[in-house]
Specification:
It is a single chain. With about 500 residues, the protein is of the alpha/beta class. It is about 40% helix and about 15% strand. An eight-stranded parallel barrel has the order 1-2-3-4-5-7-10-11, surrounded by five helices. The longest helix has 25 residues. Bound molecules: 2-acetamido-2-deoxy-beta-D-glucopyranose (2 copies). One 2-acetamido-2-deoxy-beta-D-glucopyranose binds next to helix 1.
């Protein structure tokens, strides 16, 4: 889960009401089913659920540091205990089994496997994930494993972390241990979760660990090394593991849909396109197309850097060798999608050096849209179908998984009809993308299995389909109505004409 800054949504008051009302229109639900091999799952991330922050030889991560005795987190909380999944993983597996889901997306804490980031592996950390994977398999649940969901070993941060080009090799070393130890039972690997957030929030705005603020410069250095690291892990798998293990390696990118403010104005269409190239294209273009950054990023950032007096472009270039390694380094595309922005062109001032000004667009969200507990998350089901079509047009017929999609509230109430509304309409738009637009969507992972540590928001924003009582040391979990709703969708593999929450009645 990621959080875009409120500064991006300050223009809601200026929204175009007639356009806004148009965007709220709900099409009838399509009553049909997904392909028979469609995967239904839920997702989590290690730091958000595990706790056990210093147990059994685990090293500290940048999130242990970032939350420790600071005011970085709204409720001053930490992930030291979180959902205590380090001890309660068997219960988590039962929750998933009770929902009748076929898959679970979780992440491995690098610091449990390699407490110092490189060097000597920690057998107890490895055993924890072996136990979890065995438990999943015993219950007929397919593991989808994220190698990096933001909890970098602090020892590596002390060496420059994602700013240090050596991190591509450090990441490969860690990935190889995971492939070796878990690859007999794990067939689906996600290298990185949301490198956009790692770059922009971790190293640009600084509201995520490690809290650095280089919004026009460091962000591009870091994204460069993230892409290089991804490619090295992908190539390592296909060189030394794929033949024997037969699995797949992809990357998970976050992207909001960019709706042109005036869909008939070519300059607004171009703004939408540029916004998408600067968000998902930043990471996807090199991997899924040609080993380079999108042309519009190259051209705009090169020109602005020069005008701003930088010696070199703020956007680095891949060497020919790197480009060759990066191009085509995917078996599938993971997409985390939550919301939409309305976009129009606006030339960004060069007086300020900022990623947010580099694309010459401005965006806002419509105050008519249903809000959530998250400042950046408005309910816009139409966006996910448009996004699926854009991805297909841009990157070809690549297999896609929705690796996150979900809705937040503050209450954590069990009768969460607002969350059911969200899932119903987003998933039905995905169904239309599959059945009517021929998008190659292979599976859907709801965010999240349960309420958890929502990064800088602490425990104040709840995305779970299970509630967790964080005041009780036993951290009991309780299914919400949305858990039942998702399990009905999964058991019917889509929307059927029968009555109940899956019917067309609203
Ligand atoms: C947290 O802060 C305490 C007190 O300064 C320190 O002893 C401890 O090592 C810190 N833990 C981490 C993970 O940084
Ligand atoms: C609102 O949107 C409509 C339709 O896209 C457009 O014709 C109109 O000019 C817009 N109005 C404003 C004030 O932006």
């Amino acid at each position: 889960m990621f959080k875009r800054l409120a500064l991006l949504v300050t223009l809601v008051a200026c929204s175009n009401l007639s356009a806004g009302q148009g965007y709220i229109y709900e099409d009838d639900l399509l009553l049909d089913t997904f392909p028979t091999d469609f995967q239904w799952g839920v997702a989590t991330a290690s730091y958000q659920i595990e706790g056990g922050w210093n147990e059994d030889g685990k090293g500290p991560s940048i999130w242990d540091t970032f939350t420790n005795g600071t005011t970085n987190i709204d409720d001053q909380s930490t992930g030291e205990v979180a959902c205590d999944s380090y001890h309660k993983y068997k219960e988590d597996v039962q929750l998933i089994k009770n929902m009748g889901l076929t898959s679970y997306r979780f992440s491995i804490a690098w610091t449990r496997i390699l407490p110092q980031g490189t060097g000597t592996a920690n057998p107890e950390g490895i055993q924890y994930y072996k136990n979890l994977i065995t438990e999943l398999r015993a219950n007929g649940i397919e593991p989808f494993v994220t190698l990096y969901h933001w909890d970098l070993p602090q020892a590596l941060e002390d060496l420059g972390g994602w700013r240090n080009p050596d991190i591509a090799s450090w990441f490969e070393e860690y990935a190889r241990i995971c492939f070796t130890e878990f690859g007999d039972d794990v067939k689906n690997w996600i290298t990185l979760n949301e490198p956009w957030v790692v770059s922009v929030q971790g190293h640009g705005i600084g509201d995520h660990a490690p809290g650095l603020q280089g919004i026009g410069t460091t962000v591009y250095e870091v994204s460069h090394n993230l892409i290089r690291a991804h490619a090295k892990a992908y190539r390592a798998y296909h060189k030394d593991f794929a033949a024997e293990q037969g699995g797949f390696v992809g990357i998970t990118l976050n992207v909001d849909w960019a709706e042109p403010q005036d869909p008939n104005d070519p300059s607004h269409q171009e703004a939408s396109e540029n916004n998408l190239q600067f968000s998902i294209g930043w990471f996807a273009h090199a991997i899924f197309k040609d080993g380079k950054y999108p042309g519009v990023m190259r051209q705009k950032i090169d020109a602005k850097s020069q005008e701003q007096g930088f010696e070199k472009s703020r956007l680095p270039e891949f060497t020919a060798e790197e480009s060759a390694e990066i191009k085509g380094s995917f078996d599938f595309l993971g997409i985390n999608h939550y919301t939409t922005h309305i976009v129009y062109p606006e030339i960004g001032s060069i007086d300020e050096v900022s990623y947010f000004l580099d694309d010459d667009t401005t965006d806002y969200q419509d105050s008519n849209w249903y809000p959530s507990a998250s400042s950046w998350l408005y309910v816009t089901p139409f966006g996910i179908r448009k996004l699926m079509n854009w991805l297909k047009n841009e990157y070809g017929d690549v297999p896609i998984y929705i690796t996150e999609n979900g809705y937040s509230d503050h209450q954590g109430n069990l009768d969460d009809i607002h969350r059911i509304y969200y899932y119903k309409h987003y998933i039905n738009n995905l169904l239309k993308a599959v059945k009517q637009d021929n998008v190659n969507l292979k599976g859907y992972f709801a965010w999240s299995l349960m309420d958890n540590f929502e990064w800088a928001r602490g425990y104040t924003e709840k995305f779970g389909v299970h509630s967790v009582d964080f005041t009780d040391p036993a951290r009991p979990r309780t299914p919400k109505a949305s858990a039942k709703y998702l399990s009905q969708l999964a058991s019917r593999n889509g929307f059927t004409s029968s009555v109940g929450p899956c019917s067309n009645g609203r």
